[in-house]
Amino acid sequence: MSTLQLLWFVLIGILFSGFFFLEGFDFGVGMSVQxxxxxxxxxxxxxxxxxxxxxxxxxxxLTAGGAMFASFPxxxxxxxxxxxxxxxxxxVGLIIRGVSFEFRHRMPDGKRRRxxxxxxxxxxxxxxxxxxxxxxxLVQGMPLDVDGNMMASFTDYINxxxxxxxxxxxxxxxxxxxxxxxxxxxGPVRERARNYASFFYWILYVGxxxxxxxxxxxxxxxxxxxxVTLLLVLGIVVLTVVANVSVFRKKEMVAFLxxxxxxxxxxxxxxxxxxxxxxxxxxGYYDILIKDASSSPYTLKTMTWLSLTxxxxxxxxxxxxxxxxxxxxxxxxxxxxxxxx
Length: 341
Hints:
Elements: H1 3-35, H2 40-48, H3 54-71, H4 73-82, H5 84-106, H6 111-140, H7 154-157, H8 160-184, H9 188-218, H10 221-224, H11 226-248, H12 252-274, E1 277-279, E2 288-289, H13 290-293, H14 297-324
Antiparallel strand pairs: 1-2
């Protein structure tokens, strides 16, 4: 395995980490529209917390997919063909979630606006849940042939571990969104977000125990990388406790950063368990290795220079956007602007 191959494997993990840190709270905010808000004004207030940034956050996913296609085409081909239906469902969730911002904004109060509020929340649930299912399937192994083709049955995709992973990721995103709402709003919504988060963290503790147990019995993570896996699992638990305590002490920024870092460590856990593979075959057969799945050294070198040139501008623009829209959203909601992004 070359240095550039390892570098791009790590970079793809970083891109997915950035996606779940930023888009994770978007999904949580979207789910909160129907679970946290009590009236239309509160729904408007909640949505305005992500109005200027949600579409920019999704770019991280597009970049991760593009980077995978260019740097590891064999991985991309096997993953996207084998998980075609799940990725299609994720795409539908992203689409209905995206259009709901525009359509609800143009609908008068009533049934049509309520329909698009539900569409926003359902789309925001679908995406993290099925991403959780996909990533767990990826790390517990799927039936691959010698050419990397996946021939899986329904139970290979949907099983106890994958459902637990989907629920866990959805709950993490929901809590991340609640922490973001508490950080970005004023009034009853802010206090209610803290109360909801305090309750759901206790459910998350149970989920983490179940997830860790299934990770031990259903994957080879602890056999191959015991120390790294243990440290990352403990890090996830510690950050969850930090976020929970910070919610209780009304330290909203600390809670938000801790919940975001929890998602980053989860991605790190999954990628460290995959290493040095990109696809795991059932029972250890026909694993696809990093060294066999990558593009040519020239392609990787060219991509590296392009990325190092463009990345500082992207990060600077992202930071500037959040700085510009750093103020809290008051209740009742201010004039609806910026939904189109």
